[in-house]
Design a protein that fits this description.
about 160 residues, 5 helices, 5-stranded parallel sheet, single chain
């Protein structure tokens, strides 16, 4: 089974978790990299005019990413992201809409201090009806190796 761990990380937290996960799974690791990087000002959720606030308010927003993915060799694709406004960042929607995930198992994981992943799972499933989302998990910003192992062992992949 070939596994890809892909992720979007604006501040580096999700990248660290994705790196741990890929290492444990002996999987390929690849970033969903925005064409225009997010600055600290862009990420200021308390500013209604910040880039992230505007993107999340506009459900049709599709930030561009550097399209350098070849998913054809992977059976399972982990997609990681921070939780923004109780769901996945819009760049994840862009990524999901850019590719055909037929015959792929999708495992979502999110980093968040307290917000859950349920809103993201629901949104992702409604975004593309043919996605085979087999699981989703919210992880802290620094999950232990044991937490990652326990979660992965219980996955049906």
């Amino acid at each position: 089974m070939n596994i890809l761990v892909t992720y979007f990380s604006a501040s580096g937290v999700t990248k660290e978790v994705a790196t741990k996960l890929a290492k444990f799974l002996n999987a390929t690791l690849q970033e969903i990299e925005p064409k225009q990087r997010y600055t600290n000002d862009d990420l200021n959720w308390m500013n209604n005019k910040s880039r992230s606030s505007l993107e999340m308010k506009d459900k049709s927003s599709r930030p561009e990413f550097i399209d350098n993915f070849d998913l054809s060799n992977y059976d399972v694709i982990f997609i990681g992201f921070p939780v923004w406004w109780y769901r996945e960042p819009s760049i994840i929607d862009t990524f999901l809409e850019a590719y055909d995930f037929l015959d792929k198992k999708i495992v979502l994981f999110a980093t968040s201090g307290s917000s859950g992943i349920d809103g993201a799972i629901k949104n992702v499933k409604s975004l593309k009806g043919n996605l085979n989302v087999v699981d989703g998990k919210r992880l802290s910003s620094n999950p232990s190796e044991e937490e990652i192992k326990s979660w992965v062992k219980n996955l049906s992949i």
